[in-house]
């Protein structure tokens, strides 16, 4: 049963060592993520599943202890998923995708030790129906479930954005922010997969996993942060 969810953006720039001199520009986003993780801890979950974007459709599973790194961004910084080092992850030969690595960094930063952690990666090619099924499967396992859901909104908000300016981006992001702030699972499930791909919204699949996991749960949502620095939509919210 899903008892709480934290929704956070996952740009590598959220990590101050990666952002370097630009780090203060995302201080408000980091603070919102900290607040969202606090909601998860307060829910006293039995397990935490971190869901984030991946290169392959997936779903791909990442056990507690799976390593991630930011060396590809020129920073000598490594992370692991969860507080404990799970030796089972040593032989997988697969590290965390960048979004889940950001999630691992957020958990380490918050000192998460409230429940065991595992990761699930889902890519932009995973259909909405399959995302919902993944969420339902996660929620059907025994115990109180918390989700940390990672992903960015459109990358087309300005001329200098990674995807250039697209007039559809702002309305898309506004609807996502409304749905996340209202814990509106139906609206998240109905997001247009093609439009999300064209707007380079990496959060679409993870958000639809959240929608599937929430089902008919009577959770309330709070929008904690919404902005578009660098022309990319970043949204943070908490459900409980």
UniProtKB/TrEMBL annotation:
Protein name per its UniProtKB record:
Class III extradiol dioxygenase subunit B-like domain-containing protein
Q: Which CDD domains match?
A: ED_3B_N_AMMECR1
Q: Please, which domain of life does this record's source organism belong to?
A: Bacteria
